Amino acid sequence: MEPLHYDLDKSRFRALIGVGGIGSGVFFKLNGNHTLGREESRGGRFLNQRDYCKLHIIAHYVQTLLGPAFTTIPIGYVGEDSAGEGLLLEMQNAGFNMDHVTALTGEQTLFSTCFIYPDGSGGNLTTNDSANSKVGPDEVLKAENAFKKFARRGIALAAPEVSLEARVELLKSATVHSFFRAASLTTEEMRDPFGEEILKRTDLLSINLDEASALIETNVDQLSADVIVTKAIERARLHQPRIWLTITGGQIGSWAWDGERLSRLAAIGVPVSNTAGAGDAFFGGLLAGLTAGLSLGYAQEFGTLVAAMSVTSPHTIHPDIDRISLAAFANTHGISLSTAVEQMIR
């Protein structure tokens, strides 16, 4: 894998420490594009595709795009099963520091069932009682030496599919050691008191339109996307006045607020194999871009490029994304890039 062109010695960040989902899953393709009903029975078929959970997806792109000089430290558990063994090997091969990922005896690895409509959209159902659900504040505190080692030079990533308490503890440690604090919240977590605690301790919040709607306590269909984005920024700033915010909207593009300016980018039109994991790919590309020295607006552009290539793979982690493949992808699809992003991948 070929990392981006950047100088780690001049970078603001040298490491990422994160909590979130570490797990695997399957894909089930539904018959018919209409939204699955509460009591509906629907036919379909399982697909030969690999699924991964949020921390793994985001951190994979950060690590592989920034290369072995950058340190990625996930905190979590897998089960003592074949799925867990496979994940540990894949994460090691991607270059992660695995000091804080352990296989728990008698537990099962986090598992997700992704359902896909014929048009490529979809969602997922994820287990609550997996090995990774045992991750709490104590597991974060065990990484204290890592926080000390990278004080003022690290990113703390608080991703879903792990307890809110663990994420709050991560952000507390990040605050003590002057890390850049990045987080995401699910739709249902927006209304949780711990979700509000996370917002107060976050420098960069990355969410989608549905989650932004939950933040402002409305339905995504009730307001235009631009109004939802504007109101979500206003609400987030009530919790953290200096917060940065990115919001993804699938085919309609993305928005980024850097504390002063709101930028909107259109999605890149490419043949879609699977949209699952695209938002996480965007987040991973965004964090890699920021580490490489891009402003939030240019990092948004780079995240959009990574997300666009990610959806051309049937898997939720595109196994071939690196500097070389991104440059070839941009050339093949005639994607116009800023000079800042061009210089990182050419």
Describe the structure concisely for a colleague:
This protein is 36% helix and 21% strand. The chain has helices at 54-66, 82-94, 137-141, 144-149, 164-176, 193-200, 209-215, 225-239, 278-291, 296-310, 323-332, 339-345; strands spanning 15-19, 23-30, 44-52, 71-79, 101-104, 110-116, 122-126, 154-158, 180-183, 204-208, 244-248, 254-257, 262-265. It is globular.
Q: Which key phrases capture this entry?
A:
346 residues; alpha/beta; nine-stranded mixed β-sheet; four-stranded mixed β-sheet; 12 helices; 13 strands; 36% helix
List the helices and strands and how they pair.
Elements: E1 15-19, E2 23-30, E3 44-52, H1 54-66, E4 71-79, H2 82-94, E5 101-104, E6 110-116, E7 122-126, H3 137-141, H4 144-149, E8 154-158, H5 164-176, E9 180-183, H6 193-200, E10 204-208, H7 209-215, H8 225-239, E11 244-248, E12 254-257, E13 262-265, H9 278-291, H10 296-310, H11 323-332, H12 339-345
Parallel strand pairs: 1-4, 1-8, 2-6, 4-5, 8-9, 9-10, 10-11
Antiparallel strand pairs: 2-3, 6-7, 11-12, 12-13
The arrangement of helices and strands along the chain is EEEHEHEEEHHEHEHEHHEEEHHHH
Number of strands: 13
Give the CA-CA distance, first to last residue: 14 Å
Oligomer: single chain
Q: What is the average per-residue confidence, as pLDDT, rounded to a whole number?
A: 95
Radius of gyration: 19 Å
Question: What structural category do the secondary elements indicate?
Answer: alpha/beta
What helical percentage do the residues reach?
A: 25-40%
Q: Record the strand order, biggest sheet.
A: 5-4-1-8-9-10-11-12-13
Strand content: 15-25%
Give the count of helical stretches: 12
Give a quick account of the main beta sheet: strands, pairing sense, barrel closure. Answer: 9 strands, mixed
Uncertain stretches of 5 or more adjacent residues: none
The global form is globular
